[in-house]
From TrEMBL:
Protein name: Bifunctional cobalt-precorrin-7 (C(5))-methyltransferase/cobalt-precorrin-6B (C(15))-methyltransferase
Taxonomic lineage from the root: Bacteria, Bacillati, Actinomycetota, Actinomycetes, Micromonosporales
Keyword S-adenosyl-L-methionine in annotation: yes
Coiled coil: none
Species this protein is from: Micromonospora deserti
GO MF entry, a single one: protein methyltransferase activity
Superkingdom in the source lineage: Bacteria
PANTHER family per the UniProt record, alphabetical: COBALT-PRECORRIN-6B C(15)-METHYLTRANSFERASE (DECARBOXYLATING) (PTHR43182), COBALT-PRECORRIN-7 C(5)-METHYLTRANSFERASE (PTHR43182:SF1)
């Protein structure tokens, strides 16, 4: 069914004409012509409708299910297939395609996520991490809530309400403005990155960002980044070697488990290398750093690697107050007060790197006392270094302890 509730596919009318059972929402059933006496099921809870469909198919009765847009896109096709029903799908234009069309934007580089019937945080984190995201919203997880969650991220929003109906409304706005008002259900939200050169006029709607490049099998954020990770220190701007070494970074990033839909904090970020690599793997990232010079390095490194890292200047733990709840936290700098503040936020993973041995036992005790199971390993790498005459030697790097805490 299209957004106005009519069947647009030419094969829909013949299918309905021979149907022995039709299932759909009340508005869809009212919009079609059915054979005289054809039984119908008005969709509410899905289980009873599935039972009727399974029985009809078993009896050889032709059955039709009416659904909005493309039912293969976060739609009923998945549930029908799971019930073992044979299908022929006659799709209409999806609400996502319609929303991008109304906005006049390409969407081959966009990610499509849903907040319907599930925890909305992964959808919100996708909007924080990626330059172009379409969100299928739900009551309580719509434009107002997502707009509030995008505070601090440079985004513009396009909200498409009642697509294809007489009440259709397309609104371009800022996250802050979206959070201050209500929106009609159903609606589709487009979250689009704003270029850094946008005019910083308070309250103004930023200019459109350049469309994201087409998404291919080798450049999706959920896949391995093209350049890999645990990149050499030369891949980052840093001062006085204040950077997590690549060997340590490899383990730290692995323990943080970054991926699309998760939010990672990089606390005491320094150069931001850990946060940047989490962003390369698809996570939304907040980097907290007290040193103004390092703050600029983090921004430069994020731009160099074409990822979106939100930088929060300030000293932890105070700077952590008010930040959105993390799924994982990397603590690369700060004392036990910082680790206490992090543990009290109850992330699913806490990863701490420590160079001083006298700090290891107190950190382990603190994490255990706050309900975390702790694992730890000391890493000591030796890198090849040239000697005169063409020979090589092994040059030791400083040993570092990596602690990983997970809730008990």
């Amino acid at each position: 069914m299209d957004a106005a509730g009519a069947p647009p596919h030419p094969a829909a009318a013949p299918a309905l004409a021979c149907a022995g059972l039709v299932v759909g929402a009340a508005r869809h059933l009212a919009a079609v012509t059915l054979p005289a006496g054809c039984p119908t099921v008005t969709l509410g809870p899905l289980a009873p409708a599935l039972d009727r469909l399974v029985a009809a198919v078993a009896a050889g009765t032709p059955a039709v299910v009416l659904a909005s847009g493309d039912p293969g896109l976060f739609g009923i096709v998945r549930r029908l297939r799971a019930a073992g029903l044979p299908l022929r799908v006659l799709p209409a234009v999806s609400s996502v395609a319609a929303a991008f069309a109304r906005a006049g934007l390409p969407w081959d580089g966009a990610a499509v996520v849903t907040a319907h019937g599930r925890d909305p945080r992964p959808a919100l984190n996708a909007c924080r991490a990626l330059p172009a995201v379409a969100v299928l919203t739900a009551p309580g997880a719509g434009a107002a809530e997502i707009g509030a969650g995008l505070a601090g991220w440079s985004r513009r929003l396009v909200i498409a309400e009642h697509l294809g109906t007489d009440d259709e409304r397309i609104t371009e706005t800022t996250p802050e403005a979206a959070a201050r008002r209500g929106w009609a259900d159903p609606h589709v939200l487009l979250s689009l990155a704003v270029p850094a050169t946008a005019d910083p006029v308070p309250g103004a709607v930023p200019r459109a960002a350049a469309p994201a490049a087409g998404m291919r099998a080798d450049n999706q954020p959920a896949a391995a980044p093209a350049g890999g990770w645990a990149l050499p220190e030369s891949a980052y701007a840093h001062r006085d070697s204040m950077i997590t070494k690549s060997e340590v970074r490899a383990l730290a990033v692995a323990r943080l488990c970054p991926r699309l839909g998760r939010l990672v904090w990089d606390v005491g970020a320094g150069s931001g290398a850990v946060g940047v690599e989490c962003a390369l793997l698809g996570a939304a990232v907040i980097a907290v750093e007290r040193d103004p010079g390092a703050v600029e390095l983090i921004r430069a490194n994020a731009a160099r690697h074409a990822v979106d890292v939100r930088v929060v200047p300030g000293r932890a733990p105070g700077a952590l107050a008010g930040l959105p709840e993390p799924d994982a936290v990397f603590v690369g700098g700060g004392g036990l007060d910082v680790l206490t503040a992090v543990a009290n936020r109850r992330p699913g993973r806490v990863v701490v790197t420590l160079a001083a041995l006298d700090r290891v036992a107190p950190a382990v005790r603190l994490l255990r006392d706050t309900g975390y199971t702790v694992q730890g390993v000391q890493l000591s790498a030796a890198r090849l270094a040239d000697l005169p005459g063409g020979s090589v030697r092994l040059a030791a790097t400083n040993p570092v302890v990596v602690l990983t805490g997970e809730p008990s």
